[in-house]
Every structure is written in structure tokens, then in C-alpha cells.
From TrEMBL:
Family (UniProt): Belongs to the shikimate dehydrogenase family.
Shikimate dehydrogenase substrate binding N-terminal domain boundaries: 6-88
Catalysed reactions listed for this entry: shikimate + NADP(+) = 3-dehydroshikimate + NADPH + H(+)
Domain of life: Bacteria
Function field: Involved in the biosynthesis of the chorismate, which leads to the biosynthesis of aromatic amino acids. Catalyzes the reversible NADPH linked reduction of 3-dehydroshikimate (DHSA) to yield shikimate (SA).
Signal sequence interval, chain numbering: none
UniProt key word Transport: no
Keyword annotations from UniProtKB, A to Z: Amino-acid biosynthesis, Aromatic amino acid biosynthesis, NADP, Oxidoreductase
The protein, known as: Shikimate dehydrogenase (NADP(+))
Metal-binding keyword on record: no
Pathway assigned in UniProt: Metabolic intermediate biosynthesis; chorismate biosynthesis; chorismate from D-erythrose 4-phosphate and phosphoenolpyruvate: step 4/7
Natural source organism: Lysobacter hankyongensis
Protein EC: 1.1.1.25
Length: 278
């Protein structure tokens, strides 16, 4: 049986094992997919031991995505552009790294949520692994100017330098947010609410057309989406659809089969809604 895993810290809450096992059942592909918890200093050793034990592929989640890119001897264009890897594919001499976060987000927003991203003035909160993954795909999907705000401003600058589109991307500080006007698309790609906080966000960022998207899902998405609803955002979206779509793209890279994502999304959404209201 082929072996797959998701590496992260923390990761034991991850829905990826369930999603990939369901895709496997749908497609008639037998696979073993487990969550492997490891601290940043242990990731390289854990990945090496997974490869020695026959691991064929892996997903990588926070905080290992940039380290994963360094450990690959081959990178796809989108992983190179992002400087972050969320999907590892085993080959004869090591790992090929790819990044499916961006395509996952764009498929969910333009497909399931029916949003036209073209020309949208965009605010990207965060410059960590997830922000790096989604920024190139958003630019390719035709969004307008992208303002990147991160506590550590050197990471926002590095993300913009890496993407090589200085005319379309602009680094700003959280303290500047009150002066930036309205955005058509606001993405929360910070992990702040995992630590029980939400950065202070002025309601002046939200206009009648704003779509507010939190890349996290479940309880972690509640504070940002509640802020956006209070500011009368047109649309609010959590990261569950992105999670399912990025997993489907990884599944395609490993197995050459495109799974049907809608039933998986519907089941997870119902389960999360029940947990949140319980
Ligand atoms: P990283 O650890 O790589 O980056 C975390 C980011 O959050 C950094 O930009 C960091 O800023 C910022 N941050 C953390 N705490 C705060 C705070 N209190 N205030 C402001 N900014 C803060 O994580 P990822 O980028 O991998 O993940 C970010 C989020 O995206 C997570 O919630 C994750 O679950 C979600 N995600 C969802 C996916 C999906 O498929 N739906 C896929 C990938 C991620 P700084 O650099 O200044 O520390």
C-alpha cells in the first residue's frame, strides 16, 4: 500500500488524512495517509525517515513550508515562485516540491463561491507559508494591486521581492491600515486566531463589494469573519473549500486522478457547522 503523510506542528487536528482516505475510496486507490507531528528542528530528520520507510508523498503545513522548499532537489515553478512547498512527491533522487495552496484557493473562490477575482484591489494579511502559496495564484487569476501587511515587515518585503511584481504589490504596516481605503478582496492568511487574537482591523477596509476570506476554518475563522460581517462585507468565506481543493490537487499530482471534491466539502462543512453550534 502506498504511504503518504502530512507533517506539521501542530498537526494532529488535521483533516488531511480523512480527506485523502475519502478521495482514495472514491477513486479505488488503496493508500495509507497519516499525520506526523514534528517540531521545526526535527522536520528534516522526520522526512528522511519517512522516505526510508517507503513514503511516496507528503503534505506539509505550518510551520514547515519554507524549510520543505529547502529540502527539495526539484521544485515546480509555482513552488519556486512561492518559496514554499505544501506537497512533496518522491522521485529516485529525492523530493520534488510543489505548492497547491494557491490553485486550491482560486478554485474554491472562482468555482464554488462564484467570485470573479479580476481587477480586485486586494489586502493580504500575513506573509508566512500560506500567504506565499496563494499570492502567485492570485496574481495569475488577475487580481488588481495587492497590499501585503505582516507584523514582521521584512517577510512582506521578501514575499514581494520573490514574486518580482513590485508595481502590483505593496508592503504596508498594520498601523497603516486606517489610511488604505476599501478593498475588494481581504484575505486573512495569519495564524493569529490560532493564538486567540485577531490584529486590529479598521472597518474602513470593507466596502459594499468586499469579499473577506479567512484561510483558516472552523472556530479559528470565526473572529475574522465576524469582524467582516459586522463591517457589512458582501461575502465571507472560510478556508474549508481551499483545504479540500488543495488536497485534490495534491491527490492529482500523486495519483493522476482528479477526485470529486463537492461531497467531501459538503460533509466537512456540515460537521464543522455542527461542532461550532454545539
Ligand atoms: P506560518 O506560521 O507560516 O505564518 C503565520 C503568519 O501569521 C505570519 O505571517 C505571522 O506573522 C502571522 N501571525 C501570527 N500571529 C499573528 C498575530 N498575533 N498578529 C498578526 N499576525 C500574526 O503559517 P501559515 O502561513 O502556514 O498559515 C497561516 C494560516 O493559514 C493558518 O491559520 C493556517 O491554518 C491557514 N492555512 C489554511 C490552508 C487551507 O487549505 N485552508 C492552507 C494553509 C494555511 P509574523 O511573520 O509577523 O510572525
Amino acid at each position: 500500500m502506498k504511504r503518504y503523510a502530512v507533517f506539521g506542528h501542530p498537526v494532529l487536528h488535521s483533516l488531511s488524512p480523512k480527506i485523502h482516505r475519502t478521495f482514495g475510496q472514491q477513486s479505488g486507490i488503496e493508500l495509507d495517509y497519516v499525520a506526523i507531528e514534528c517540531a521545526p528542528g526535527d522536520f528534516a530528520a522526520a522526512l528522511s525517515s519517512f522516505a526510508k520507510s517507503g513514503g511516496q508523498g507528503a503534505n506539509v503545513t505550518l510551520p514547515h513550508k519554507q524549510r520543505a522548499a529547502e529540502l527539495c532537489n526539484l521544485l515546480s515553478n509555482r513552488a519556486r515562485r512561492a518559496g514554499a512547498v505544501n506537497t512533496l512527491i518522491r522521485h529516485d533522487n529525492g523530493w520534488l516540491g510543489d505548492n497547491t495552496d494557491g490553485v486550491g484557493l482560486v478554485r474554491d473562490l472562482t468555482g464554488r463561491q462564484g467570485l470573479d477575482l479580476r481587477g480586485r484591489r486586494t489586502l493580504l494579511l500575513g506573509a508566512g507559508g500560506a500567504a506565499r502559496g496563494v499570492a502567485p495564484a492570485l496574481l495569475e487569476a488577475g487580481v488588481g494591486d495587492v497590499f501585503v501587511v505582516n507584523r514582521d515587515s521584512t517577510k512582506a518585503d521578501a514575499l514581494i521581492d520573490q514574486l518580482g511584481e513590485p508595481g502590483r504589490m505593496h508592503a504596508r504596516y498594520f498601523d497603516d491600515l486606517g489610511t488604505l481605503g476599501e478593498f475588494d478582496l481581504i484575505l486573512n492568511a495569519t495564524s493569529a486566531t490560532r493564538h486567540g487574537t485577531l490584529p486590529t482591523l479598521p472597518m474602513s477596509l470593507v466596502g459594499p463589494r468586499t469579499a473577506a476570506v479567512d484561510l483558516s476554518y472552523g472556530e479559528a475563522a470565526i473572529p475574522f469573519l465576524a469582524w467582516a460581517r459586522a463591517a457589512h462585507a458582501h461575502t465571507t468565506v472560510d478556508g474549508l473549500g481551499m483545504l479540500v481543493e488543495q488536497a485534490a490537487e495534491s491527490f492529482f499530482l500523486w495519483h493522476g486522478v482528479r477526485p470529486d471534491t463537492d461531497p467531501v466539502y459538503t460533509e466537512l462543512q456540515a460537521r464543522h457547522a455542527a461542532l461550532i453550534t454545539a
